[in-house]
Write a structure and sequence with these properties.
Blueprint: E1 20-23, E2 29-32, E3 43-44, E4 50-53, E5 64-65, E6 70-72, E7 81-83, E8 88-91, E9 99-102, E10 106-108, E11 112-116, H1 124-131, H2 134-144, H3 154-158, E12 161-164, H4 167-204, E13 226-229, H5 230-233, E14 235-237, E15 252-255, E16 269-271, H6 273-283, E17 291-294, E18 302-304, E19 312-313, E20 318-322, H7 331-338, H8 341-349, H9 361-366, E21 368-371, H10 374-412
Parallel strand pairs: 4-10, 5-9, 15-19
Antiparallel strand pairs: 1-12, 2-11, 3-6, 4-6, 7-10, 8-9, 8-11, 13-21, 14-20, 15-16, 17-18, 17-20
Helix pairs in contact: 1-4, 4-10, 7-10
């Protein structure tokens, strides 16, 4: 039996009916927000003010607007649009077509549309997901094409066609995707928390300017740290530049400044194994244990090469430090040190050039580095390596869940 084009590919058990297709304006009430002007005269810090919903109040994760940064005086109410918990609002400009559910009372300016389900046709969670699907975004873009400004308005949104199932199926879909969004939000919060925690530890576990010991240390370590030049402790190397004509679709990953991450990168460009051997013999290539850092682009961004797999780095844009030439510097410690405020300040001030700055071999060799004895270096390096692993774990979970959600949206919506 041929599948109806009004039936999704994947459904919950027990649901077989076609989804209903209607013009959106026939089902909901759509209104545009408004702004009292000049708005600065209406902004207030009075706790009795009305929540003033701006694009910046929308969450990075999730669909609910729970707070606003600003309030307006009640006198401005007649010149704006009031919204309440349960109302759905849709961005009509900057975050084009992004829907949110109000969890608080407030007022919206003309960068928002409000959508009210007065006929009680939709489950609110389902409707919020539906309006953000690729199908709806494609309709918005197609209907806005040709206009001077690619903005939405209530006529354009109302003119779209929506497909929706029974209320029972809507509720199940809404709950499923809210659960997925909650998991994404959980991992995103853990990621953000770990990033901030690491930032704080980078400030406290390394000495500040003019000091010889850090604020926080592992038990048993009391000696002053010494200051040396990086070039005295590690071999700093660059690579030969590879012409674009030698880039390949497969082979050895060719790591550019934009490919540097907190783990072993696998770039999007490659060179053949034959040319890799040629360039490796000519100028060398990063080996396991080398610390890679950007000399161009996002200067000072760093990674540790943790595997034996061959890679080649973009000459002039990526440098690498080989600590194995010395028994005084641990590679995990060096990677962490590169991320400290002191090191990042040096990267910034020692970079040459105008708009496009670059950080070269000479300032790399002259870079001042504070370090304790090797045992303490290893403890510090291991600590930040574990933090990086936790950060990467939550980042990967977020990415995997977003990919999973995208796949389900394609299969569970018509």
């Amino acid at each position: 039996m041929e599948k109806s084009n009004k039936t999704p590919k994947l459904r919950f058990p027990g649901f077989t009916d076609d989804w209903e297709q209607r013009k959106f304006s026939e089902l909901v009430t759509i209104e545009r927000g408004g702004s009292p002007r000049p708005i600065d005269k209406y902004i207030t810090k009075d706790e009795n003010g009305l929540n003033w919903v701006k694009i910046g109040d929308a969450p990075n994760q999730g669909n609910y607007i729970t707070q606003t940064a600003e309030k307006i005086r009640p006198e401005g109410l007649s010149k704006t649009r009031e919204v309440h918990p349960g109302d759905l609002i849709l961005s009509n400009s900057m975050s084009f077509g992004k829907p949110y559910i109000m969890a608080i009372d407030g007022c919206i300016h003309d960068g928002w549309l409000t959508i009210r389900d007065n006929q009680k046709i939709f489950d609110l969670k389902f409707l919020c997901i539906l309006l953000g699907t690729d199908n709806m975004l494609s309709q918005y873009k197609a209907m806005a094409a040709g206009s001077t400004v690619n903005n939405l308005n209530k006529e354009l949104v109302g003119g779209t066609t929506v497909l929706y199932p029974s209320m029972d199926e809507q509720i199940k879909l809404g709950e499923l995707f809210e659960d997925i969004d909650n998991l994404i939000t959980l991992h995103q919060r853990e990621y953000d928390k770990m990033v901030e925690y690491k930032k704080g530890m980078l400030q406290k576990m390394f000495p500040k300017d003019g000091e010889t010991v850090p604020e926080i240390r592992f038990p048993g370590f009391t000696d002053d740290w010494e200051q040396r030049k990086l070039g005295e402790l590690a071999e700093i190397k660059d690579s030969a530049r590879i012409p674009n004509a030698e880039w390949s679709a497969s082979g050895v990953p060719y790591i550019r400044a934009s490919d540097i991450t907190n783990e072993d990168a696998s770039g999007v460009l490659f060179i053949s194994h034959e040319r890799y051997e040629f360039y490796k013999n000519k100028t060398g290539a990063p080996a396991k244990g080398d610390v890679l850092f950007n000399g161009g682009g996002e200067i000072g961004k760093t990674m540790l090469k943790s595997s034996d797999s061959p890679i080649y780095v973009q000459g002039g844009a990526v440098l690498y430090a080989r600590t194995s030439v010395s028994d005084s510097l641990d590679e995990q410690y060096l990677k962490s040190y590169f991320e400290t405020p002191n090191a990042q300040h040096y990267f910034e001030t020692a970079s040459a050039g105008g708009t496009m700055k670059h950080f070269t071999l000479k300032p790399s060799q002259e870079m001042p580095i504070k370090l304790p004895q090797m045992e303490e270096q290893k403890r510090i390096g291991e600590c930040f390596s574990e933090l990086d692993n936790l950060i990467t774990l939550h980042q990967r979970e977020c990415e995997a869940l977003k990919k999973y959600k995208k796949g389900l949206l394609q299969q569970m919506f018509v």
